Amino acid sequence: MAAKTEKLLQVKNLKKYFNVSRKDVLKAVDGVTFDVYKGETLGLVGESGCGKSTTGRTIIRLYDPTEGEVIFDGQDVGGKLNRNEKKNLSKRMQMIFQDPYASLNPRMMVKDIIAEGIDIHHLAKSPKERIERVYEMLETVGLNREHANRYPHEFSGGQRQRIGIARALAVDPDFIIADEPISALDVSIQAQVVNLMQELQEKQGLTYLFIAHDLSMVKHISDRVGVMYLGNMAELASSDDVYGHPLHPYTQSLLSAIPVADPKIERTRERIILEGDVPSPIDPPSGCRFRTRCPFAMDICAKVRPKWHEAEKNHWVACHLHDEEIKTENV
Amino acid sequence: MDHLMKITDLNVVFHIFGADVHAVRGIDLELNKGETLAIVGESGSGKSVTSKSIMGLIPNPPGEITSGEILFEGKDLVQYSQKQMQKIRGKDISMIFQDPMTALNPTMKIGKQIMEGLIKHQGLSKHDAKERAIELLQLVGIPNPEKRVDEYPHQFSGGMRQRVVIAIALACNPKILIADEPTTALDVTIQAQILDLMRDLQEKTGTAIILITHDLGVVANLAKRVAVMYGGKIVETGTLDEIFYNPKHPYTWGLLSSMPKLHAKTDKLLAIPGTPPDLSHPPKGCPFAARCPYAMKVCIDHMPEYTELSKTQKAACWLLDERAPKVDPPSTIGVGGEA
C-alpha cells in the first residue's frame, strides 16, 4: 500500500462533554488528536462507552464539540458554522449508520431516500437526471433499478445497509464516517458489505473513518487503527503495528481477549484477562484512565495524565511505560 | 457414550403472518454428558428455536412442534405438559439468555432471584437458600457477595449481570445448560471474562453446555463439538477440529472464509452472495442451493442425505455423493494453527 500523506482531516484535542445533571458532566470524548489521510481507512475501535461513536458524530457535527479543532481539507469546521458552511460540509462528509432498520425513513421510497441529498444540494438539473443518478447509485451498491420504487421494509438488513451506503454516496462525498456499519448484520452479509465498501474506496478514492468494536474486521479494512478507552485515544498506528506489536497495555489485553476462530490457536493462547469493568466516564480515574485495570500501573499513572506522543515512527501512544523521560526516572 | 439428550426429527412451525414459517425442519442432535456442543448459524437459521423447544418455551400459538421427539434421560420432553416442564426447567435444564439487561427482573433483589429456584426445586429454607445464593455469587466471581446479594440488577454492570444470570442458571446443578448467545451483548474484555468463567464452571460442575452463537471465535474457544445450522436444518456436524480444519459443506466453507483472520492477512473476504432462504416457503431441495457456488441441478430439487465422513462428522451435501464432481474447498480453509 502506498503511503498516504496528504491530510484530509485533522482532529486536535477534540472534547465533547454532555451535561447529565446539574453537577455531573459526562466526558464522552476528552481530548483526542489524530489525522486522517486522503484515501485511507482509519479504524476506530474500543469498547462501548469509550467515545468512538461520539468522536465520529462530533466530527460530522451531529454534536457540537465542547472544545478542540476539526480541520477538514484545510478549513476549520469545528467552530461555529453558518447554514451554508454546514451544507457544504455535509456534501463532502457523509455518514453510514449502525442500524439499517432505524436509519431509513420507513415512509419514504428508496429513490427519495437516496435522492434527498441530491435535492438538498441541487445536484440534479432535471427529474430525469435525478432518477438516473438514483439508478446509478443503486447499481453501484449492487441493487437493481427496480428497487427504487420500493419501501425500506421490503429489504433485508444487508440490502438496507446497501441503501444507506447509496444514500451516503449520492452527493459524491470525499469522506465517509461509518459508525458500526456491519455490527447489526449476519456474518455472511457482513463480508458482502465490507467488500462493497472496499471496492467503492478503490474506485472512487474515498476516505473512511470506520468505527467498530469488531477488532478483526477493523484490522481487515483499515490502513491505520486508533484504539480508544474512556474518552481518550490510547494508541494509534498502522493496522499491522497495532495488531502485531501493540504498545499500550490496553491494546494488548483487548487483542488477547478476542476469541479467534481457530481452535489450535485458542488452545495455546495466553490471555491477559482484565479485571473489573470500564469505570464511569462521569467520574473517570485521575491520571491515566486505564490505570485502575492496568496490570502495569505505577504511582505516576494516578498523578499525571500520560502524554500523547509518537513512541516509534508513526506509532502514537499515551502511556507512561513508553514515555522516555519517565522510563529513565523510574528505573 | 451414553447420550444425555437425543433429538430426533424435530420440526417446529410458526403459524404467523397468514403463513407457516418452518423454523426448524427435521433436525437430529445428540448431547453427551459433560460436553459442550455449539450450534452455529445466522439469524433465522433455527438455532434459537431449537433451544427453546428443548426448554419447552415455544409459545403456542403461534409456534407448534409438529413432530419429532426430544429424549432427555429416556423421557420425551415434547409430550410434557407445561406443569411437568416447570419441574425440569431451571432444575435439570437451565438457560442463559443473550441480554443480561432484560433477563433479570428489575424489581427484585438479585439474591431473591437466585433463591427462587432453590426454594422451588430443592425445597431449601429461605435462610439456606440465601446462603447458597451467596456461595453461587462467589462461584461466579462477584466480589463482596454478602452485600451484593441484597442489591438490585440496576446496581450491576453488564458483565456482572451476566454473572448473576449464570449463577441463577447453575443454582440447582443442572445437567444441561443452554447458553443462547451468552456473550453477544458484552464487550470483548468482558466476554473474555465470561468465557473463562463458563469453562471453569464446567470443569467444576460437569454440566453439559449447548452453546448457541454466530461467533466462530467463541465456538473455537469453548466448544468440543459443533453443529452448523442453515435454513432450519443441520447441514454439518463434527468435532471442533473437523469443522474448522476439515469442513465438507460449502456453507461451512463460506462461513469460515467470510470472517477476517486476526492472525493472518486476508486480501478480500470471500462473501457468500445472496441472503438466507425465506422459511415460510422453504426450498424443496438443499436450503443453501440458491447461494452455493457449487450448486448442481439435483441440489435444487432434492434434499441431500447425510454422508458419514467419520465417526463424529457428517454433512448433508450432494457434493459428497460418489457421482458428484470432486470439488476442493477454498484455499483459506483448513490452514491455521500458526499463531
UniProtKB/TrEMBL annotation, chain A:
Gene3D superfamilies listed in its UniProt record: P-loop containing nucleotide triphosphate hydrolases (3.40.50.300)
Record-linked InterPro entries: AAA+_ATPase (IPR003593), ABC_transp_ATP-bind (IPR050319), ABC_transporter-like_ATP-bd (IPR003439), ABC_transporter-like_CS (IPR017871), Oligopep_ABC_C (IPR013563), P-loop_NTPase (IPR027417)
SMART domains assigned to the protein according to its UniProt record, in alphabetical order: AAA (SM00382)
GO biological process, alphabetically ordered: peptide transport; transmembrane transport
Keyword annotations from UniProtKB, A to Z: ATP-binding, Nucleotide-binding, Transport
Residue span(s) of domain ABC transporter: 9-255
Entry GO MF terms: ATP binding; ATP hydrolysis activity
Classification via SUPFAM superfamilies: P-loop containing nucleoside triphosphate hydrolases
CDD domains with a match to the protein in the record: ABC_NikE_OppD_transporters
Protein family: Belongs to the ABC transporter superfamily.
PANTHER family found in the cross-reference section: D,D-DIPEPTIDE TRANSPORT ATP-BINDING PROTEIN DDPF-RELATED (PTHR43776:SF7), TRANSPORT ATP-BINDING PROTEIN (PTHR43776)
Protein name: Peptide ABC transporter ATP-binding protein
Organism the protein comes from: Sporolactobacillus inulinus CASD
From TrEMBL, chain B:
Keywords, comma-separated and alphabetical: ATP-binding, Cell membrane, Membrane, Nucleotide-binding, Transport
Gene Ontology annotations of biological process type: peptide transport
Gene3D superfamilies found in the cross-reference section: P-loop containing nucleotide triphosphate hydrolases
Matching InterPro entries: AAA+_ATPase, ABC_Ni/Peptide_Import, ABC_transporter-like_ATP-bd, ABC_transporter-like_CS, Oligopep_ABC_C, P-loop_NTPase
Cellular component GO terms, alphabetical: plasma membrane
Pfam families: ABC_tran (PF00005), oligo_HPY (PF08352)
PROSITE patterns the record matches: ABC_TRANSPORTER_1 (PS00211), ABC_TRANSPORTER_2 (PS50893)
Domain ABC transporter: 5-256
Family statement drawn from the similarity comment of this UniProt entry: Belongs to the ABC transporter superfamily.
The name this protein goes by in its record: Peptide ABC transporter ATP-binding protein
The species this protein was found in: Sporolactobacillus inulinus CASD
